[in-house]
Amino acid sequence: MPRRAKAEERARVAAILQALHGARPEPRVELDHDSPFQLLIATILSAQCTDERVNKVTPALFRAYPDAAALARASLPGLEKLIRSTGFFRAKARSIKTCSQALIERHRGEVPRTMEEMTRLPGVGRKTANVVLGAGYRIASGIVVDTHMARVARRLRLTKNTDPVKIERDLMALIPETEWIFFSIAMILHGRYVCQARLPRCGACPLRPHCPSRDLEAKRS
Q1: What is the pLDDT of residues 53-106, one digit of tens each?
Q2: 107 closest CA partner among 62, 76, 66, 69
Q3: 7-27+143-214 CATH, one of 1.10.1670.10, 3.20.20.70, 3.40.250.10, 1.10.3210.10
Q4: Which of 92, 146, 166, 219 is the catalytic position?
């Protein structure tokens, strides 16, 4: 059972959300895509890889294989060659191919719109499903927890957990459902560019007044 936030905690969360909206009014996922299907494939490729690198790979990939049917028929060596620079390319090629086959067999080539159906696809966990449902379909299914989200949420003391499932549970109990999609994207971008792992830019952080870990930048200098 999710815990119920106290009034003081709710007020701090509201202030954090307000600051995030002020800093990033319309945050966007940085994986280039023209459809939920392209976002799904790009998100699979982004594991242990930067969005910038994925964006260099996907134009050629989608020219060669424009839809699920084409990827389902693709040869693994051909896929591996196109995605090699994203790392773990053999495992990713298998995931992309089997996921595309499942889309054809179960969903007529369309990306499903529920968490249950998404996470039944090969290679798709909650994080990937939340990215696609939120940014692809604007469906608030949960909160995306990647390394950036986990780090910033712990620094803000929105969670004490390290397990992504438990972190998501804690955040979903604190963040209004209407903010889940915005919060997911804005917090990840905040972690990527401001609240970085090694050199957090606390002096430039719009969340600094609400952050119990503020001034990490000064403490580490």
Answers
A1: 999 999 999 999 999 999 999 999 999 999 999 999 999 999 999 999 999 999
A2: 69
A3: 1.10.1670.10
A4: 146
Kindly name the residue from 92, 97, 127, 170 that is annotated as catalytic. Answer: 127
Give 178's contacts (C-beta < 8 A, 6+ positions apart).
Answer: 140
Block residue for tokens 């469906």: 139
Tell the CATH topology of 36-137. Endonuclease III; domain 1 (1.10.340)
pTM score > 0.85 for this model?
A: yes
Specify whether 92 is catalytic: no
What amino acid is encoded at 6 in this protein?
A: K
81 is known as an active-site residue: no
